[in-house]
Amino acid sequence: MTYSVTRTKNYHYVIGFVCVVMLILLILLPTFLGKASLRLATEMAGYMALAVMWNLLAGYAGVMSIGQQTFVGIGGYALFILAGFSGLPLIPSILSAGIISALFAIPVGFILFRLNGAYFAIGSWVIAEIFLLLTAQSVWLGAGSGMSFPTAVAKSFGNSTERAALFWWIALTIAIVAFTTAYFWLRSSRGLALTAMRDDETAAASLGVDITRNKFAVYLLAAAIAGMVGSVLFLGKLRISPTAAYDINEWTASIIFIVVIGGIGRLEGVIIGVFVFFTLRYYLADFGTYYLMALGAIAILMMIKLPKGIWGIVYEKMEIEIFPLRRNIIQTQKEKPSHH
Amino acid sequence: MLKLQNVSFQYGALTIPDNVSIEVFEGEAVGVIGPNGAGKSTLLDLIMGSKTPQRGKIFFNNREISVFTSQKRCAIGIARAYQIPRPFYGMSVFENVLVGATLGGRFRESIVYEKCFLVLEKTGLIEKAQEQAGSLRLLDRKRLELARALATSPKLLLLDEVAGGLTDIECQDLISTIRRVNELGVTIIWIEHIVHALLAVVDRLCVIDQGQKIADGIAHNVIELPKIKEIYMGTPE
Ligand SMILES: Nc1ncnc2c1ncn2[C@@H]1O[C@H](COP(=O)(O)OP(=O)(O)OP(=O)(O)O)[C@@H](O)[C@H]1O
Ligand SMILES: [Mg+2]
Q1: What's the domain count of chain A?
Q2: Does A296 reside within a domain?
């Protein structure tokens, strides 16, 4: 008997084809949608990227960060400084925003990774608050009232319709980069390490998984993506202020909701989660505070009743993976050699 | 090869193990016995690095490893099968073993596939290679513990009660597997309550009681010591 390993099943070719078609439709979205809908789609793409990263962090690497708004905020401010006031072209500015966020994540992570469990979570939040306070004290960043993106520079990106399309494409690209990076990461042997950490950190360590290094690597990637998301979303708003930039509700609580609903520790989950979240927001936003309470209640109910999330259930019942990560073993019966 | 020097670990007010020294030589198979709660598993925690001793030192091949991470200890050739299995629930049995082979052995994934299949065959898990580890029964989980540890190609293998619950035939299989591993040059420390299984493999026996090492020597001599008989009196083994 011999065995070999494959990653894909036949239905994945169909899924691959569907993905390509969807991608084309998404790229062409500005031809079907108006400005307002396009802005919503842009926001969704940004949230998707953040959720994919938070899922990697908390769902796989066991990094319980509730301070990812730190890097969203840094990215937003970096973009306003670079593209708005320093004359750097847009795309390099967005990339730099990602890099700057990741650079900040190095010392921040260095401090946080000394803390465990709940202390890490609280520490990550405290650090976000520190950045908020520091930014609010910085006159060159507009202090507490923040800054507006210079109109002249904004106009150089086109009229408001063209800008909406441009920002959509940028956000779409970031979401796709986040998703495919996460996917290929999880498929690789580093992903094997992350998945092992997800299930049992102690056992993973004793089988050779470098826990700290893997956590840090995911943390840096997540910071870079958060920085880029922050840059494009605040560019869309043309305004940034400390409370909006480092907002825990907006950039972490909603993201946790998305990941929990969709299925923590499952790549596919975030796609479902994003749609559920935006649907709920659409229908419930008019109820003001009750909307937030409803979201909280749903998340808590979900954690108690369906801790594996929507996709976790689907996966368990049907063993379907839209994005194949499993290693399937194929058994090939060899011709028995004749006896001599 | 492995040297514990006056090692102690504190569980609050409880010191277990308390000032224990053991030296294990290359190629040896050492059995560890002792009553429940004696501190046997804690000893393995200290060797594997999931706990660090408050006092004492641990050496591996003359290098002090007392504060090494588990990952580093795995990289220098120590592997462990846990008493209470800790499978990676959401991964297949094959992938569980692959973690040890590729990350522990530090090889590219595709190179070690063959080896994983071999280990799975050797531990009787090949039929279940595709199953989710979380769906395995206790017996198979224990097999998986052994399989994963073996997949890292260890120089020192730490086994914690891997024979409990096996039928006689399965136990014989396990004994011959472990013996073969030992014959290939892997040093073994094996904690086991099923003494006859232990005696079929090990040449040396250590007895731990209340955190203390109370006997250490040639297996058949140790088992005949009056104080050991006393501890084991009334137990069917
Ligand atoms: N997390 C813990 N906190 C406090 N005490 C603990 C903890 N873990 C173990 N102990 C205590 O330490 C002692 C040694 O435990 P250990 O698991 O090493 O024993 P053992 O010899 O392996 O026993 P067994 O044969 O039952 O596996 C026990 O008395 C146990 O109650
Ligand atoms: Mg034990």
Answers
A1: 1
A2: no
Q: For chain B, which residues score pLDDT lower than 70?
A: 232-237
Average pLDDT for A126-149: 92
Per-residue pLDDT, A176: 96
Strand pairing report for B204-209 and B29-33: parallel
pTM of the model: 0.90
In a domain, A285, yes or no: no
- What's the domain range around A148? 39-248
Cβ contacts of A326 on chain B, cutoff 8 Å: 92, 95
Percent of chain A topping pLDDT 90: 67
Give A121 to chain B, closest Cα distance, Å: 23
* Contact residues on chain B for A204, CB-CB shorter than 8 A: 88, 99
- Listing DSSP states for B121-183 in one string gives HHTT-GGGTTSBGGG--HHHHHHHHHHHHHHT--SEEEEES-STT--HHHHHHHHHHHHHHHH
Residue A324 lies in a domain: no
Q: Do B92 and A327 touch (CB under 8 A)?
A: yes
| B83 CA closest ligand 1 atom index | 27
pLDDT digits (tens, 9 = 90+) for B88-104: 998 999 999 999 999 88
The continuous run of DSSP H or E covering B4 comes out as strand B2-8
Ligand 1 contacts (CB < 6 A) are B 11, 14, 16, 34, 36-42, 83
